[in-house]
Amino acid sequence: MRIPIQFPTCTLLVCALAAAACAGDADTSDSATASATPATERAAQTGTVSLADVAGKWTVRATPESGDTTTTTYVLTATADTSGWTVTYPGGQPIPVRVRVDGDSIMTEAGPYDSVRRPGVKVRTTSVGRISGNSMTGTGVARYTTTGADSVLRLRLAGTRTP
User: Fold this and answer.
1) How many folded domains does the chain comprise?
2) The domain spanning residue 56 has which CATH number?
């Protein structure tokens, strides 16, 4: 008798991110190869991304998946290791971010901190993203310190490396 294998939600999330990152026109021309960066080349060859290749500033747009889909923009400052990562919203102070890598996925956590979307409410955020050249895509979850039914907000993330 076969017992069905159940995949954890995290595995499905990583698979969904991989599918989303790979979606689009397949371009096998020299220009597609020329635009590859060390981060994407290493991830393709080893299945692992290096934080050193991600280091720098990224402008990220976070868009809720439903409800009020107003985009929030922030700057993600990434370092060559797991220390010193921050998120900074316009006009705000840098917020420390905890980071780890699992294969080609970069996972972050921040908070609790004062929400930009909901003034006077604390929030914790988690995200999973992938890098492709100078672009970043992923998903995020904001968990608000409230007892209301809207305490969780799911987001789509899209970012670009800031020169």
Assistant:
1) 1
2) 2.40.128.120
